[in-house]
Amino acid sequence: MLLSSLYIIGITAEAMTGALSAGRRKMDWFGVMLVASATAIGGGTVRDILLGHYPLGWVKHPEYLVITCIAGILTTGIAKWVIKFKGVFIRLDALGLIVFSIIGTRIALEMGLHPVICVVSALITGVFGGLLRDLMCRQTPLVLHEELYASISALSSILYLSLLNGDVTQTYATVITLTVGYLLRMAAVRFKWRLPNFHLESETSAH
Amino acid sequence: MLLSSLYIIGITAEAMTGALSAGRRKMDWFGVMLVASATAIGGGTVRDILLGHYPLGWVKHPEYLVITCIAGILTTGIAKWVIKFKGVFIRLDALGLIVFSIIGTRIALEMGLHPVICVVSALITGVFGGLLRDLMCRQTPLVLHEELYASISALSSILYLSLLNGDVTQTYATVITLTVGYLLRMAAVRFKWRLPNFHLESETSAH
Amino acid sequence: MLLSSLYIIGITAEAMTGALSAGRRKMDWFGVMLVASATAIGGGTVRDILLGHYPLGWVKHPEYLVITCIAGILTTGIAKWVIKFKGVFIRLDALGLIVFSIIGTRIALEMGLHPVICVVSALITGVFGGLLRDLMCRQTPLVLHEELYASISALSSILYLSLLNGDVTQTYATVITLTVGYLLRMAAVRFKWRLPNFHLESETSAH
User: Fold this and answer.
1) Do the domain assignments include residue B8?
2) Tens of pLDDT along A150-203?
3) Domain count of the fold of chain C
4) Glycine transporter domain: from which residue to which, for each copy (chains A, B, C) (predicted)?
5) What is residue A196's DSSP assignment?
6) Residue A202 domain-assigned?
7) Residue B174 lies in domain
């Protein structure tokens, strides 16, 4: 299936970003595999726990875990090469974000949950892996500062839900959402689209 | 119901504290909504996951999530006003703490769990939201240093359990626990009651 | 049963390491009990949540929680004594690691899960408590930098599975795994065995 193959690409790309972060913290191989796996499948894991959707994906399909661990370890060997091809990387990550968002939406849909929860499910699947990576590597979570990322996950989910609601078939809805979401994310990176920031001084002085 | 209305007040107040913390970290709107929601409903979520109490409250009632997101975003607009009315804020937070503790106790009771677990359930409901907020905003968790907070959550739970055990009706038990717990918390803030600290020097010198 | 008694020793030892870390962060008694309990039973809790293995151990047996809280508080009184007997401590921790790994393996086995997941279950049980302790006390997680720790957990699990597979009885498999795992861990500490590190410069310069 289209979505399954894209899912494998998505977790591989995310595992590589995790391994690179672990490398910046001088972690050992175990740390690299842990951070790579948490980045790649942490979002889906958190989603499944919150929705009570058992068994978890990687418990049922341990091969996903094997893929993320191998991708993590291989990345340590080709890190310099990976960094040079940063463009490829950002593209794979953008694809992964939309794939994860569609999968999150579908799982909540299949559980018969409210559309709001479907969008939240997409968001958690798309965003929590990177959040866990940044917490484990003690970096300020990128998703809370960066160009539009979470918003694109939510928008993709809303688009996908609307298409299904408008009687578009699942395959078309998937292809359209993937295309639009991917282009939006690449545009957000290129034009540095951001959400408004909320900046509160620690010491607010009365005026 | 009394407890339901108080619950709405509680999650709104907690969402506002979350948004203020996010503002101190210059997060964007998504970050503000995430931290606000985690602060408000994170404690109940962690409790439900630990007890295996599915579906989670906000999955069943997505409107709670909508409330915390809106409260978070509105707070960014009125932050300076909110900070001036710090007194109101501390009172709402104190009320929230006791309401969360009573709800936590009751859920564990209804699941037929041991009284020790009922108190733990109260504690997790009352305290974990703030803990998540501080972890996400990379502050040293207040609850581990501040005036009595967790202890008042535990005491409220014990009081509530004792009242029910002494054949007081649920409504009276709720009102009495709310009053006593609230006054205790306000007294702890005013008189700076604290638990003993445990301070271990990193390099302990022999004497 | 052998494993049950060893489990009690293991959670007591782990609770003490948690309390010592909390002391270095000047936490109050509540913080000490929280960190002690998270260190001791956090690994099993994370494992049970990931595997959907409900009710959690300490919800069913609240006495485990009572033990870890008491161990944590007592440690604050005898911290200087504990630090002097560091050798005893490292031995208890090594024993705990292997006991946790065997228990993790068995729970996954009893749930009929894939051998890869049995090893992951051992790893999570053995390693996540310490990881939570270090995150809560804002230290760089030791497990990601230290002498072989996670690897010994995984190796113990693989050894235990192989023995059972080779028709060794459960009791013998337990005793053999405990002995070999313990000796491996002590050797790793003494000879400073480590996994290769992956160190990536933040600013990689082309050459």
Assistant:
1) yes
2) 899 999 999 999 999 999 999 999 999 999 999 999 998 888 887 777 777 654
3) 1
4) 6-77, 92-162
5) P
6) no
7) 2-190
pLDDT above 50: residue B194: yes
> Is the Cβ pair C144, A76 closer than 8 Å?
no
Q: Shortest Cα distance from C195 to chain A (angstroms)?
A: 6
Q: Cα separation of B97 and B103, whole Å? A: 10
Selected for mutation to probe chain C from A21, A24, A27, A46 (highest C CB count within 10 Å) is A27
CB C157 within 8 A of CB C119: yes
The 10 Å Cβ neighbour count of residue A64 is: 21
In 3D space, the residue among B12, B41, B36 whose CA is nearest the CA of residue B25 turns out to be B36
Tokens encoding A10: 């998505």
pLDDT in tens, B107-139: 999 999 999 999 999 999 999 998 888 888 877
Q: Is C30 on the interface with B (CB under 8 A)?
A: yes
* 8 Å CB contact of B49 and C49: yes
ipTM reported for the complex, 2 dp: 0.87
A80 shares contact with chain C (CB less than 8 Å): yes
Query: Mean pLDDT across the stretch B45-73?
Result: 96
In a domain, A37, yes or no: yes
Structure token digits, residue B182: 């609230």
Within a domain: A94: yes
